[in-house]
Amino acid sequence: MCRATLVFLVFVVASWITSPAQTFTTLYSFCSQDRCNDGLNPYSPVVRGSDGHFYGTTLLGGTIGDGTVFEMTPEGVLTTLYSQGLSRRHRD
After folding, report:
1. In Å, how far are 15, 18, 37 from 12, measured between CA atoms?
2. What are the residue boundaries of the structural domains of the chain, listed by start?
């Protein structure tokens, strides 16, 4: 066995041994409010702000129905910052 292969195998085994288990936690389930005022179908990748909160958008839902811009704490507390869209009167 050549030296490069041995080094690679040692690295792979060492990485596998020291890797912690990955777990996922649901922070929030959208469309949990009446008429989906909290948003429906998260759309863009969520970004983490310098304040530690998460920011993103939804494709649908909100008070008007055309999506939301939201902020979420690491504990899963959601605040809708903006409901997107025009009122039905302006769509016709």
Report:
1. 5, 10, 48
2. 23-91
Give CA–CA dist 46/52, Å, rounded.
12
Question: Given pLDDT bands bounded at 50, 70 and 90, which one contains residue 17?
Answer: low
pTM score? 0.67
Q: Give the separation between CA 71 and CA 36, rounded to whole angstroms.
A: 16
22-31: per-residue pLDDT in tens? 888 888 999 9
Q: What is the full DSSP assignment across the chain?
A: --HHHHHHHHHHHHHHHHPPPP-------SS-SGGGTT-EEE-SPPEE-TTS-EEEEEEEBTTTBB-EEEEE-TT--EEEEEE-S--HHHH-
